[in-house]
Prior knowledge:
With 286 residues, the chain is α+β, with helices and mostly antiparallel strands. The protein has one domain (50-265). Helices cover 15% and strands 28% of the residues. It is globular and about 65 Å long. The model has no long low-confidence stretch (mean pLDDT 96).
Amino acid sequence: MKPNPITAAPTDAAARKSIKPVICYPTDTLPRPDLSAYRALRDDLELIETVVIPPRDAATWEVPAGHFCRLVCPEGPQVGDLNLFNLDNLNERFYSGKTRALDGTHVGLGDQLFSNFPYMRPIATITHDTLDWYGFDEFGGSVHDVIGTRCDPYTHNLLSHGGQYHHCCHSNLTRALAKKTGLSPELAEPHVHDVLNVFMCTGFTRDTGQYFMKASPVRRGDYLEFFAEIDLLGCMSACPGGDCSSEHSSDTAPCFPLAVEIYRPKGLPQGWQAPPVSGYDRSHGL
Length: 286
């Protein structure tokens, strides 16, 4: 909880608070994908691989550019923490902060996931979401957020006054990435980044502005689907919080596996081209 203010409000406080907000990044000029061209391919997809992610653990997979990837809830309600990398360059990875600035706090159908600087390009396009019916609830909650960071052993250690927990999403992702790449955990860990919280229902409290979670509305068979704009390496943790209705970093919350399905289409979206990296010259005014 925030402390009560100790500074007297100015006489024009009400007028200052009533100023209308301005969108930081107007997206009128943002190139948008032709979603119909992507979705036209969905009726004739070939399943080429399925990866199962055990509860309280993580796994990796590869998605070639031009393929579809589905993140599936195959059993009970479960949320997942997703990292995405350029398959050929771990230094290019999903940038949740800039994706949030451009798409909003929660992503869904038609949104694109952007990579970090200096690459700054869409690396995945969301082509289907079986939870798009949820929208925003009365608490301001919604699904698939890009605001949370991932449960991690460092925050757990801080809040539990020294506790050690090794199956939080940060550690799960670190182990899985180390196994995939052959890097030591110490070298793999810096590549783990802020996540897309798949299926997680979150928001900010209106009184204190605190990040909250609530029981995910995900049902058996629900999925979030994206099209790979570049060759991708995916890494996802089945969160130890289960549906995150009570806590995360938990050995007691009911947890279930997640599944990843890779689909090959018969062709590419009409007019599609792989997105180039940012055209900024990187001179920074020097």
